[in-house]
Amino acid sequence: MGERRRPPFPAELTVRVGLVWLIVCMIYVATKWSAIAALNLPDADDTLRMVQVRDLLAGQGFWDLHQYRIDPPQGMLMHWSRLVDLPLAGVQLALRPLLGPALAEHAALVLVPLLTLGAAMLLAARLAWRLVDENLIYFTILLLALATPLTAQLQPLRIDHHGWQVVAVLAALNGLTARTAWRAGWLSGAALALGMTISLELLPIAALFGAVLGLRAVIDPAMRSGPAGFLQALAIVGVAAFLGTHGLTDMASHCDSLSPAYLAGLTVAALAATVLAALPPLPVLARALGLGACAALAGITILALAPHCAGGPFAALDPLVRSFWYSNVHEGMPVWYQKPAVIAQMIAVPLAGLYGAVRLWLASQGWPRRFWFDYAVLLAGTILLAVVVARSSAFACAIAAVPLAWQVREWHRRVRGFKRPLPRVAGLLAIAAVVMPGVPLIALGKLTAAPAGTAAPMPSAQLACDIRAAAPALNALAPATVFAPIDIGPVLLAETHHRVIATAHHRAPQALHDVIAAFIAQPDAARAIVTRRGARYVMICPGLIEAGNYQRAAPDGLMARLLAGRAPEWLRPVMLPGKTGLQLWEVEAGRN
């Protein structure tokens, strides 16, 4: 179990991982080919990311993160980072001379997520290579490829930021393996600073890494420079990344991004930790209290500069928006809101990895023993985060990959020793159930007949409505503001030149409120909202989940009337050719 002293990324490791990565890429592309060919992106965030990159390449300022066709006329300031836009834009610019703009974009939507997958595989394999043995890399990569909460973020067309967050977490985990305490802290902090620049969703993960480094420093005074290096990197790299991606154009204290208030808190904590590390070794209690004071200073500074952030980035959402939109975003909900098969994959796999990490800790000696203890603590904390916020399960699965790979290999060796075929088959099936616990539950669900009259799940926006087929007719109309359900807003922006009131993004809370309020309101009240918003058209997609939610909430509201074919007098039907699943009306009165 001793650490293998190797170059950071040996050529042999890179070649091995690269070959497996190519095979996995071919499998992913083959299984996703229909979606790739049709350019059906996984969800609205991917579509809006594509729109954001298009705007950048069309000449919008690098530091200007507004989506001017959302919430017109002022537009919506996005909280997304240009760090994620850069590889997408770079690949397109590199391929345009060969493929042209359209095919270059299409290729980038496939290549960039696969490159992100390759980076995640290489970083996870490096841990296995250094800390266990070189042959474990194959088990590690296989388990990464089978972890559905993880691979859902690393598949072709998945250009949202979650895949890069996984890479940042694995890079930070590699940083913890550095031999010196300060270097371990600095490398981990730098990786997580970039990760938090991409999205502040990584703040709890960064806190876990900081807690692990703090625990090291409390247990061993020789490790007291670790927290200082960690906080220094968070502050320095965080400020540099902020200035590089925002300049000085937006100095507001946003609660949903690594804004100046958070950077100030990290800087104050870094200064305090640096002073603490420079002192002679202190008693255990003093070290613990000192590190606790550093964390408290960070929190006090942030709340002093941005007291409105005390409740988190979604605290300001009004009850209507929270009920109809935020509460239906499953990735942000606790695991008990998920289906049993999904819960099993999110939690059971990381728990098996935690078992492996504890066994590695107990079986190791010296520095590796300390590292595997830290690893187990970090994984346990991430599992708890995944229980509370489902999207964190991707990080838990990524961190669990190496110890789970070791544990699976140990189980496999034991099963191979069985002489009788029946126990051997049973053992292999048990291992498969641990690695893919959702599969038996899915199979059981398919065998269980649904009760009579049970409605089938409603499809996503892109499957329910063929906006691309309607695009020629829509683009033949003069550019205008379309009052549409929030879930089809990004696709409308991607396929047409029109504007929308809101999309499923919280930076325009009043626009979100107005869309929801209008669709559940009586026709006269809805008309007032539509007119105030300057919308020329009203559009719906009857097969959309969102449409059904409005209909059930307000059986006599605007959406319910439109679905029933009882449009109010102030809406004039506009015929769309073909079977697009869309319905469009022009606003007769109050036209803008």
Strand content: under 5%
Query: Taking Cα atoms only, what radius of gyration do you get, to the nearest Å?
Result: 26 Å
Shape: globular
Number of helices: 25
Number of domains: 4
Contiguous runs where pLDDT drops below 50 for at least 5 residues: 449-458
Structural class: mainly alpha
Distance between the termini: 71 Å
How does the major sheet shape up? Answer: 5 strands, mixed
Indicate the percent of residues in helices: 55-70%
With strands numbered from the N-terminus, the spatial order across the biggest sheet is 4-3-5-7-6
Mean pLDDT: 92
The total of beta strands comes to 7
Concise structural overview:
The chain is mainly α and 592 residues long. It has helices spanning 11-31, 33-38, 44-57, 82-131, 136-146, 148-151, 162-175, 181-198, 203-219, 225-246, 260-278, 284-305, 319-324, 340-363, 366-388, 393-416, 421-435, 438-447, 461-464, 467-475, 489-495, 509-520, 523-532, 545-553, 558-563; strands at 66-67, 76-77, 481-483, 499-500, 537-540, 571-574, 583-587.
